[in-house]
TrEMBL record:
<feature type="region of interest" description="Disordered">
    <location>
        <begin position="1"/>
        <end position="25"/>
    </location>
</feature>
<keyword id="KW-1003">Cell membrane</keyword>
<dbReference type="GO" id="GO:0051260">
    <property type="term" value="P:protein homooligomerization"/>
</dbReference>
<dbReference type="GO" id="GO:0010008">
    <property type="term" value="C:endosome membrane"/>
</dbReference>
<dbReference type="GO" id="GO:0005525">
    <property type="term" value="F:GTP binding"/>
</dbReference>
<dbReference type="InterPro" id="IPR040990">
    <property type="entry name" value="DUF5600"/>
</dbReference>
<dbReference type="GO" id="GO:0006897">
    <property type="term" value="P:endocytosis"/>
</dbReference>
<keyword id="KW-0472">Membrane</keyword>
<keyword id="KW-0479">Metal-binding</keyword>
<dbReference type="InterPro" id="IPR031692">
    <property type="entry name" value="EHD_N"/>
</dbReference>
<dbReference type="InterPro" id="IPR011992">
    <property type="entry name" value="EF-hand-dom_pair"/>
</dbReference>
<dbReference type="InterPro" id="IPR045063">
    <property type="entry name" value="Dynamin_N"/>
</dbReference>
<keyword id="KW-0106">Calcium</keyword>
<feature type="domain" description="Dynamin-type G">
    <location>
        <begin position="165"/>
        <end position="401"/>
    </location>
</feature>
<keyword id="KW-0967">Endosome</keyword>
<protein>
    <recommendedName>
        <fullName>Dynamin-type G domain-containing protein</fullName>
    </recommendedName>
</protein>
<dbReference type="InterPro" id="IPR030381">
    <property type="entry name" value="G_DYNAMIN_dom"/>
</dbReference>
Length: 510
């Protein structure tokens, strides 16, 4: 159940209220819609009604008001003028039905038909009842045509589907084997999940998505990739060899109703990393990084070396630096003096692979169900671990609240990347001869991609950091004939510019 994106009910003017109706109504909405989705689900609607009851009883309302023990004793909210408003709405609806008699009726609130319909008819702004629905509309109308025209899905990221917008926030755990990734998830859930294996050797040999479900079960990767209500259809590009190492673990759990976890195979080190995996590991981690809201890099005090494969994995997270958090796990296995040295060594190792001038946030602790070994770390170490764990849990709790903002952020990033991609393809197309020597000209362009990127950057005044990896782009471009691409269509570029400059700000304002 979801209510329309309109302010919460205004408290009755005859009831005692500590503030004027409009500010009180805004405060009710802000507290009830804590995830900033732009609409109220069933639970949020109940919260809003409880807050209205409190306001009408003359109480100040805040987030803490919901913790009151006497909340259940308050009378239901009084809605003055509601009957008249409902009668008016029914009258208007009847008139619309009469006017539409003989014409095809509009679809219901479901947005699935936006992705499936071949019709070019645009969805009006009035059909949008949330920020997410608004992003779906903008994607279909303005961004997707640009992506399809210039094959953005083959170069950068698969086309988005309805489930990509509706998916719950995701947290991915990365690290070498036996750094406590699976144990970390079990610690948060306070229980095991289907298919969880823990041991000192590399036990998790596959990507496991832990998400909410009606019962405990595992779903194979090939089945998962073709389910329309799951946001994993894009993983089919990595082939059956990857999908056979991918599965979903479902179970009913209150935490999983808000967050989905992605457990990954341990990154190999030493002699083992020379054994090639049967799929592109860094490509998969890069795909998940784009979808995730938080990426946790786990380290063990005894495994601080960053192997070649781990270095490539961290490199694949480029562009998602704001999502990365570093966790030094199992820190109670060493004493305070050793911990100080280990922390310094970890920061030194990270400084060589994370190409940022800022220092990464490192959480120190022992994230498992066992009590902290106070004999090793002492009382000061135990207090430190507890504070660090609280900070990390606070970071995780904020994820659902920031999910909508993150979705907008990723959408804007994608739109800018698609625009730059179109400029690059259009530029390469313009460099091709009209008649003879096309193969030779294409090879010359591919060999000099760095120079061509620089030309595009100067011509359109674009930031160098937004351009794709040259090697990855070169590899993808090799499978195409540049001559068959479209030239830059100014109308499509302008549509994306209008979306970024006007439509998205207007959507947020509404």
């Amino acid at each position: 159940m979801a209510t329309a994106a309109s302010p919460a009910p205004t408290p009755s003017s005859s009831s005692p209220c500590p503030a004027s109706p409009a500010p009180t109504s805004s405060r009710v909405w802000a507290i009830a819609d804590s995830k900033r989705l732009g609409y109220l689900g069933f639970g949020e609607f109940i919260t809003a009604m409880q807050l209205v009851s409190l306001a009408q009883a003359g109480n100040e309302i805040s987030q803490d008001s919901l913790q009151r023990e006497d909340l259940i004793s308050f009378n239901p909210p009084v809605m003055e003028g509601l009957d008249a408003q409902l009668a008016k709405s029914k009258h208007l609806a009847k008139r619309v039905d009469q006017d539409m008699d003989g014409f095809p009726q509009a679809q219901g609130p479901s947005t699935n038909h936006w992705f499936n319909s071949k019709s070019s008819k645009k969805i009006p702004l009035t059909a949008v009842t949330s920020v997410i629905d608004g992003l779906k509309r903008l994607y279909i109308e303005k961004l997707k045509p640009l992506e399809v025209t210039y094959k953005f899905n083959d170069f950068v990221s698969p086309l988005l589907t309805n489930s990509d917008f509706d998916a719950k926030p995701m947290v991915m755990l990365l690290g070498q084997y036996s750094t406590g990734k699976t144990t970390f998830i079990k610690h948060l859930l306070k229980t095991s999940y289907p298919g969880a294996h823990i041991g000192p050797e590399p036990t998790t040999d596959r990507f496991v998505v832990v998400m909410s479900g009606p019962d405990e079960r595992t779903i194979p990767g090939n089945t998962l990739a073709v389910q329309a209500d799951m946001p994993f259809s894009g993983l089919t590009t990595f082939g059956t060899s990857f999908l056979s190492k991918f599965e979903c673990s479902q179970m009913p759990h209150p935490l999983l109703e808000h967050i989905t976890f992605v457990d990954t195979p341990g990154v190999l080190s030493g002699e083992k990393q020379r054994t090639q995996r049967s799929y592109e590991f860094t490509g998969v981690t890069s795909w998940f990084a784009a979808k995730c809201d938080l990426i946790l890099l786990l380290f063990d005090p005894h495994k601080l070396d960053i192997s070649d494969e781990f270095k490539r994995v961290i490199g694949s997270l480029r562009g998602h630096d704001d999502k990365i958090r570093v966790v030094l796990n199992k820190a109670d296995q060493i004493d305070t003096q050793q911990l100080m040295r280990v922390y310094g060594a970890l920061m030194w190792s990270l400084g060589k692979v994370l190409n940022t001038p800022e220092v990464s946030r490192v959480y120190i602790g022992s994230f498992n169900d066992k009590p902290v070994k106070e004999s090793a770390v002492g009382p000061i170490g135990k207090e430190l671990f507890e504070k660090e764990q609280d900070d990390l849990l606070s970071d995780l709790k904020d994820i659902p609240k920031k999910a909508c903002d993150r979705r907008i952020n990723e959408f804007v990033k994608r739109a800018r990347a698609a625009k730059i991609h179109a400029y690059i393809i259009g530029h390469l197309k313009n460099q091709m001869p009209t008649m003879m020597g096309k193969a030779k000209a294409q090879q010359k362009l591919i060999d000099n991609l760095e120079g061509e990127f620089a030309k595009v950057q100067r011509e359109h005044h674009l930031p160098a950091g937004d351009f794709p990896y040259v090697e990855h782009f070169r590899e993808a471009l090799g499978g195409y004939s540049i001559d068959r691409f479209e030239k830059v269509k100014p109308k499509m570029i302008q549509a994306v510019d209008d979306m970024l400059g006007y439509d998205i700000p207007e959507l947020l304002k509404n």
